[in-house]
Amino acid sequence: MENIPAMPVDRRLPDRTELRSLLRSPMPDNRPAIEVKSLDKYFGPIHAVRKISFSVDHGEVLGFLGPNGAGKSTTMKMIAGFLRPDGGTVLVNNLNVIDDPVGVKARIGYLPEGAPSYGEMTVEKFLRFIAEIRGFDSTERDKCIADIIRIINLGSVRKQTIETLSKGYRRRVGLAQAFLHDPDVLIMDEPTDGLDPNQKHEVRSLIKNMSSNKAIIISTHILEEVDAVCTRAIIISAGEILFDGSPGELRAKSDRNDIDDAFRSITTAQATGLAG
Ligand SMILES: Nc1ncnc2c1ncn2[C@@H]1O[C@H](COP(=O)(O)OP(=O)(O)O)[C@@H](O)[C@H]1O
Ligand SMILES: [Mg+2]
User: Fold this and answer.
1) Which atom from ligand 1 is nearest to the alpha carbon of 75?
2) Which pLDDT belongs to residue 227?
């Protein structure tokens, strides 16, 4: 069992109108959408995330790359407010995730690893449940569910329970709940993991179509995905950032101008102690 420390509880939960206004409240000028400073996380003796700092602007799609166990999911959970950091700060649209977890969650769409776990709910009921949590009134709710079902192409399975869906459809339901409130910050943990090539292509297109003016972080093991959807890449390994730059700059790290080659040389240099 995962031993995840609880987030501080905001006892006064906002009502529906407050939640909706939170999502659309204006952003201070010239601030990045996501600012991560010296973020640190231990699991017992494991130093999973080691004082990492970076920021993401609106309009950027940041690819989070790194070997298994690098700390990608842990970092994403901390940004999304699902895991409490041991040190450092996360600001989302200038709100601190520890001081204002509800405000931050209202502005974020988060696709966790794997698939939604409410297997016994139908797709429509699940999305209705999410819309209610998000504070939509019944008219808004019905409209946004109809929109997302159309955009994500879930019409044929809307009455089916989630547990009976194929992996590809289950992932689409996960994306639907993350996109439902049209947040301007999206955190997606391996959105194409385990999908077949056609489904991968479909999910990438969806993310691309949804991405204008949003700040997006996606983690992936598939380096071609960086070219397909990302404007920027960060390589994280053993809890540290080893590279932060454009896909082109990443490729230029390889003599052969090859992204896999660049990834391998950056991550194995660290493993053999050659990285600075
Ligand atoms: N809940 C947890 N309890 C203990 N160790 C954990 C937990 N979550 C992650 N870890 C450890 O933290 C490190 C980073 O994990 P993770 O963030 O899942 O990596 P990634 O997503 O890059 O594969 C790994 O060593 C992993 O075993
Ligand atoms: Mg992970």
Assistant:
1) 17
2) 87
> What does each C-alpha distance from 195 to 43, 160, 168, 204 come to in angstroms?
30, 20, 6, 11
- The pLDDT assigned to 276 comes to 43
Map out the domains of the chain as residue ranges.
31-114+183-271
- Give the distance (Å) from ligand 2 centre to CA of residue 71: 7
Cβ neighbours around 275 below 10 Å, total? 15
What pLDDT, on a 0 to 100 scale, did the predictor assign at position 9? 42
Question: How high is the pLDDT of residue 145?
Answer: 94
What ligand 1 atom has the least distance to the C-alpha of 66?
22
Q: Give the number of the ligand closest to the Cα of residue 191.
A: 2
* 196 neighbors 204 (Cβ within 8 angstroms): no
72 lines ligand 1 (CB under 6 A): yes
Does ligand 1 lie within 6 Å of residue 49's CB atom?
no
What separation in Å is there between the alpha carbon of 236 and the centre of ligand 1? 13
Residue 93 Cα to ligand 2 midpoint, Å, equals: 24
The pTM score is: 0.88
For residue 70, the one-letter residue type is A
Residues of the chain with pLDDT under 50: 1-2, 4-13, 274-276
Topology of domain 31-114+183-271 in CATH is Rossmann fold (3.40.50)
Instruction: Give the model's pLDDT for residue 272.
Output: 57
Q: What is the DSSP letter of 39?
A: E
